[in-house]
Write a structure and sequence with these properties.
Beta-Lactamase, Helix Hairpins, 19 helices, binds flavin mononucleotide
Length: 662
Amino acid sequence: MNNLRTSEQIRAEIEARFGFFPPFFRPALTNPQVLESLWLQTQFAYLYNPLPPLYKEKLLAYLARYCAVPYCLVCHSCTLQSLGLGGQAVLQLLAAVPPPEREVEQYLQDCYLQTPFNWSDRLDPVLEKGLFYGAVFVFLDYGGHYGDYLRELLGPIIYQHLVLLLTYTKLCHGWVEAHPEIVYTEDRRFQNYFGSLLAEEPQLAEFVVSYQEQVRAERCSRAERLATLVERKRNAEALQQMTARNHLLAQAVDAVSEGVVITDPHLPDNPVIYVNPAFERVTGYSSQEVLGRNCRFLQGVRTDPQTKQTLHNAIARNQKVQVTILNYHKDGTPFWNELKISPIFTDEGELLYMVGIQSDVTGRKLNQEALQQARDDLEIKVQERTLELERANIQLHQEIAERERAQQILKHQAAELLHAGRVKDEFLAMLSHELKTPLNAIIGFSQLLRTGKLDAQASQRALETIERNGKLQAQLIEDLLDVSRIVSGKLRLELRPVHLSSVIEAALDTVHPSAQAKDIHLELVFQPGSGLVWGDPSRLQQVVWNLLLNAIKFTPSGGRVTVRLEQSAEQVILTVADTGRGIAPEFLPYIFERFRQANCLATRAEGGLGLGLAIVQHVVALHSGTITAHSAGEGQGTTFIVSLPHRHACAPLEPPILSNTP
Ligand SMILES: Cc1cc2nc3c(=O)[nH]c(=O)nc-3n(C[C@H](O)[C@H](O)[C@H](O)COP(=O)(O)O)c2cc1C
């Protein structure tokens, strides 16, 4: 920067070159560096630029339209005049609207046909337009391949000069726009040429005033055009993409194994407008046969009406639906169609089409049905088996219960047997004792008698003792025989009308000595001749006698035994009550059992086999009567009540009763 020239030096050089000092440089006079720069660029980019002078000036004049101030426009128009262009030609050039890009591109392409070319100011019109507007579009930065074309056409060196000129032009526009004090009226070119230009074309004046509006209008319409173009291009691209996508989709739909049906719900009866190849395979119908028809032709007599209704409802409401419906192939054979129908809407929610996807699921359905059938069969079998098992279980329970019952009975019987065996053993022991006791007395006294040592009184007592013991033994044996008869069912009754009162009197006579011996008071309460029954007198006497003996036996001395005979319309009732030791309540139920006395130590002390009450009960039963024993407890006395049918209630000529087994 040391050898920087002064502004005056530069100014002198500029004036020398132009013959005047253009107002363009004036603002830089205060800044020699800027002035030098402006001047150097003006020289190398413009003045010494090897492009043809007319081309250069035309370009600079035309591009000045895009500058906000008219300085460049006026000055370069004037230069054009100096180069021989008339006013009309200048206006024509300046007012020309830039052609559309397509056209410029076409010019440039056409220029190729003319390469290599000799670039003089006189060029073929197409070539001239191509080079001119190509440069204008590079200046305006319209994009596209204008620069590439020009580089090709002009070669890299000339192309660089062109680019430098265009860049310099931009610099000039910026410079003058920034300095409003630069006015064309002060420029020698205006002063020298503009008057004659206006003389040739007066409208130039108006253009200079209004060119900015025209350029703005041009730019707007160009922007609109551009927007339309961009929109059209975008649409074209979208269309292309859509077509590609549709193509892809169509290929995919054609390739799927499921049948695809598309219907148009806007046409009457929602007819088929497309089917894919799989539909033809699934149904057996060709697309020609189905286009224009409603899909219900696939249904038949066995198609479920409920499923059809489901489809109808969903389709009427434009809703998705999925069913498995029985359809028929073209040859009439049925198949199960798993059908999914979906409505297709636009982004705005407008219904476009309905799409159905079909799958033949016959195999699966048959398997399911077979499986279901097998399950049902199994269920029935399980139920039957369960029922059988339940029944068997109940039966088993019953059997177990029965067995348990039987076991209980067996156990009971075993216990009874054991008990009976024990009772029998005890009875046998007791029997031997009872038989032996009188026998001992008989033998003993017999031996005493045989010794001859007894006096007459003692001998008399010995004989009485022998007789009493003999009778006792006879009675024991008689009782045993009775029991044996009862057990074998051979006890016989000699039945006839009997007055029970006389039977009682006879029995009383027999037991009287015993009562007396124990100082027991015998009380009789009855009318003689009463109590007529149908019976065996000796057996009835045995009954009364046994009861009386029993009472006397178990009543302590000084006690009382009461015998009462009563009579109702039906019954004759004999009561034998004592004031004896009574019977314990737990022993009462067994009082009539055979050999029971053997269990009871208290009664054993009194001697006897304990068969009496058992015989009594049996004999009473043979007379169709009953006997009951009552006692308020030990020491409270005992009462036996015998009830026999009254004589007139018995059949008068009944044959003698043969006893039953006990
Ligand atoms: C896209 C589409 C596909 C259909 N595909 C079948 C089909 O494969 N099998 C069938 O039985 N019904 C199909 N239908 C249903 C019948 O066309 C019909 O709408 C339905 O049986 C109700 O009939 P309706 O309106 O006479 O009651 C389809 C429906 C549509 C909209």
